[in-house]
Design a protein that fits this description.
about 5% strand, 25 helices, about 60% helix, Glutaredoxin, mainly alpha, 4-stranded mixed beta sheet, Serine Threonine Protein Phosphatase 5, Tetratricopeptide repeat
């Protein structure tokens, strides 16, 4: 829901190259915030806590490490912002260097123990880890009020500082008068804006118990804020009911506009939960349950589309809520949702295993997505932040290149990868400098382009490309920090081994398709033989003389799992369970398939063999 429901969350996750460019534009080390300095034998943080209690002013503590990109960004970009420096004047502001021994009591008191700089990305592109830097907001009584990890956009940070200050003030007021529904509703609204949903839920429910009709100060927005809080807890039906109630109570009002926007978000969250359930059921080999969950996800997306389409209005008539922030945001979400629906439809073609058909559908999708994005940019009011290109465009273009390679159209794939890297360069290029929004995707494209060149006999060109990709000495190069760097470096070190690896990769992909085709036609005995031959030729661990190993562990792991499925279908239950038992080995050092989807599917099959038999045979 982070992409659907707006909030004041100020954490950002930026690609490494974008961070580098941003640092270049910052006055690193300069800060306009008035940081407290110690005037006696107390550490600055202790002085800040003492003064906070004495003067009834909250503390803003910036806990940092030296020689950190994110620390430099906060110092040179966020703390120099006029709005931030103004808002900070109402706090006791102090800097705390994380790893200095004298600051350890502060780190321990607020449970800030970390091991280094906050990570830029996890596998989903989001901020990961609770380490440094971190900005801690502390009440006058010394209790932690709010924390922000990593770098924060200046405008968002200034808003958040003011919100935290109001939270502190409201809590002090409610300590004197706990049954004020207006203050409770406002506190809940702020908690939701700060993404502290559980805390927000508690005070909003209390406000509505005291003022169910909103006549004593809670106001009509309290139920909508509560809907967001319960939605974050996964209570989709209750959230939808709360929103529908407000739509019925306030037709034609601004509350109605906000409610319709949130309704679309709640329905989309429901659809996403169904999608995740479908993935889990598919991993457990419950094809029927997975199909039902996928249908529920599709229904939820259509319902969300209908909710947001309300903002478009009837043809020839003025659209409801026109020129409001809710309309602009909902219409943007509607465009993104339609793009996602089209992308998922294209992915269905990819899953059918026809690369040429997939390339055609994905090209059509990318062309339409480009046109829609250009139209949205053209219609954007002047002065607004430029719209980001939809991430699904780069996803589609990456998949097109892979499908061309699957079809063995390596010459055409090289041209595609060249165009891809011209559009999404791994390093700043052009004037003004252009850089990829997704370094991992662009680095993968560069590696795959090298593979195509190598397969076409252009070995020196391929090795030169891989050498540049793995070059860690070039500080503007993000690729050494992506998964493509290791294979590129290995290819440069052993070109002959690379040639053998590519030959084996082609062979294992062909063998895997052959085994799947046999299973699709019900020839499980022949398929079992095919899987055994594949695993003998491409084992998961080094075997034979000379020693050999699979060029693609994911394929070999999946083949091992499918061998178990064939045996199970053939009534050889003990053999099947033994096969899956090896895949489900919990010790990652002993299990080469520990991180493969086949491990989870095997564990699920072992947990419920009778259910597995029923799902596979329908009996």
């Amino acid at each position: 829901m982070a992409t659907v429901l707006r909030s004041s969350r100020s954490l950002v996750s930026l690609p490494l190259t974008s961070l580098a460019l941003l640092i270049l534009g910052c006055a690193v080390g300069r800060s306009d915030v008035a940081w407290l300095q110690s005037v006696d034998d107390r550490q600055p943080w202790q002085l800040a806590l003492d003064l906070a209690q004495k003067n009834r002013r909250p503390v803003m503590a910036f806990v940092y490490i030296r020689n950190s990109q994110l620390t430099d960004l906060m110092d040179g970009g966020t703390f120099t912002n006029k709005g931030v420096s103004e808002a900070s004047k109402r706090f006791q502001c102090v800097r705390v260097e994380a790893f200095r021994p004298e600051n350890r009591p502060f780190i321990d008191r607020y449970e800030l123990g970390g091991v280094g700089e906050v990570k830029i990305h996890d596998e989903n592109g989001q901020m990961e880890g609770r380490t440094f830097p971190v900005t801690v907001f502390i009440s006058p009584t010394g209790e932690p009020e709010h924390m922000v990890y990593g770098f924060a956009i200046p405008q968002d940070f200034a808003l958040m500082v003011n919100q935290v200050l109001e939270v502190v003030q409201l809590r002090e007021a409610l300590a004197k008068q706990a049954d004020d529904p207006k203050s409770l509703a406002r506190l809940g609204e702020l908690y939701v804006a700060l993404q502290r949903y559980e805390a927000g839920r508690g005070v909003l429910e209390q406000a509505l118990r005291l003022d169910p009709d909103g006549k004593l100060g809670a106001g009509p927005g309290a139920r909508l804020d509560l809907a967001v809080a319960v939605l974050a807890a996964g209570e989709y039906d209750r959230a939808t009911a709360l929103i529908a109630e407000e739509i019925a109570r306030f037709p034609g009002s601004e509350v109605d506009c906000k409610a319709h926007y949130l309704l679309g978000g709640a329905l989309l969250a429901t659809a996403d939960a169904s999608r995740q359930q479908a993935e889990r059921l598919a991993a457990e080999m419950d094809d029927r349950g997975a199909a039902q969950a996928r249908e529920a996800a599709q229904l939820g997306r259509r319902q969300a589309e209908e909710a947001w389409r309300w903002f478009e209005g009837a043809p020839g008539k003025r659209a409801p809520c026109a020129d409001t922030e809710w309309s602009a945001t909902a219409l943007g979400c509607l465009a993104d949702l339609r793009l996602e629906i089209a992308y998922q439809a294209a992915q269905e073609v990819v899953r059918r295993g026809d690369p040429k058909a997939a390339v055609k559908v994905l090209r059509d999708f990318a062309a339409q997505a480009d046109a829609d994005y250009a139209d949205r940019v053209k219609k954007q009011p002047p002065g607004q932040k430029p719209l980001d290109e939809p991430a699904r465009i780069i996803d589609a273009l990456l998949t097109i290149g892979k499908q061309l390679m699957a079809a063995r159209e390596y010459g055409e794939a090289v041209g595609h990868w060249r165009r891809f890297l011209d559009r999404y360069p791994t390093q700043p290029k052009g004037d003004p400098p252009k850089v990829t929004p997704d370094p991992e995707a662009s680095c993968e494209a560069a590696f795959l382009m090298g593979e195509c060149l190598f397969r076409l006999g252009k070995r020196s060109e391929a090795l030169d490309l891989w050498r540049k990709l793995a070059d860690a000495k070039n500080r503007a190069n993000p690729c050494p920090y992506t998964p493509s760097a290791g294979p590129a470096a290995a290819a440069v070190e052993d070109p002959d081994g690379t040639a053998k690896w590519l030959e084996d990769k082609t062979a294992i992909e062909a063998a895997f398709r052959a085994g799947k085709d046999l299973m699709a036609t019900g020839k499980y005995d022949e398929a079992a033989t095919s899987w055994r031959q594949l695993l003998d030729r491409f084992p998961l661990t080094l075997t034979g003389n000379p020693p050999t190993v699979t060029p693609d562990a994911q394929i070999s792991c999946e083949a091992s799992f499918l061998l178990g499925e064939c045996l199970f279908r053939l009534g050889k239950r003990d053999e099947a369970l033994a096969q899956w038992q090896k895949l489900a080995e919990p010790d990652k050092k002993k299990n080469p398939c520990y991180f493969a989807p086949a491990r989870g599917k095997s564990a699920a099959a072992l947990q419920d063999p009778e259910g597995t038999l029923k799902r596979l045979t329908g009996k």
